[in-house]
Known about the structure:
41% of the residues lie in helices and 14% in strands. By secondary structure, it is an alpha/beta fold.
Amino acid sequence: MNNRERVHAILHYQPYDRMPVVHFGYWHETLVKWAHEGHITEEQAYAWGDGNPTDAEIAMKLGFDFNWSSCFTPDTRLRPGFETKLIASFPDGSRHVLNGEGTVILEKDDAISIPKEIEHLLKDRASWEQLYLPKLQYCIERVTHAGVNAGGTIIRFDEGGEDYIKASAWADPYGIYVGSLFGVIRNWLGIVGLSYLLVDDEPLLDEIIDTVGHLCYACTETALQRICPDDGPAPFDFAHMWEDISFRSGPLISPRIFRKKVGPYYHRITELVRSYGIDIVSLDSDGDVTKLVPVWLDNGVNTMFPIEVGTWGSSIAPWREQYGPELRGVGGMNKVVFTRDYAAVDAEIERIKPLVELGGYIPCPDHRLAPDSRWENVQYYCDRMRETFG
């Protein structure tokens, strides 16, 4: 069996020959450290991206089979993004920088964590209509220069990329990214701004959600129409979404409100991909997502990823007990053991053995590998996974 066949078999509760050894990529600082240690080249550290050839080279060195986040990605982002701009510098070397999403963040040269948010450009209807809405327009017109036509309309599809998909036959699973329906909005507003907007101007929040939902659907629909053969299903193994809308104590939004406002767009998109034969839909959200799982499951998302263990102890086991075999999972392996020793790796593999026996579950580190991950521990993990689940 190849890895595509293995994944299909595992997530559909069918026989398979071995468990693939799956990963979720790395922090940039991790790759730079490994380059300094001589495990990879500096060129590889800077060329890496999810699913690209460098990703495959590094995975082979470590012993991984593939990266779950390998996806064809229709462009549902702000187009054009905001120009990165230095706002202020401080004596300690830190600085305030406007990023591509319109958020002013605190940057520090030695920081290896998510930067602190200082301010957001999106505050009210005026900033929405002037700064954001024009960047979220749908267009499929093709041009040959700079990605923008004479009228300034953003081009959201790359013909070369579509031609590549049509011509490719790959042995590893490959998904289609169908967007973020709420996580990007949380990025633009910040959690405080989002909370205030829900109370101060709920119709505006609804309009923002509608705009994002329609754009994600339109981009996904066009990609599937252009790529899929007339006489067969889509050449994708799964559809994939990103949100990151939970933290260690649970969701950053009320599950009731999330179900009401965002659930219909999940349902519409998952129905669309299923009409093209894609019946595995995975969703990436960190934190404790337990209270959001039923919302996603009811609206067609059936595979949780990366099941971040954290201090709250997330696991597919209680979700499976509550929701049955329709709930699948990829992830749930506590990446923290990579900072420790071989004994910690062995203990973690023992812990996930009963989870694998549930079926419909593929172990994967529960986030990108952080800079304190030790190269030799990751290699040892890959070897032990093959010994244990081969």
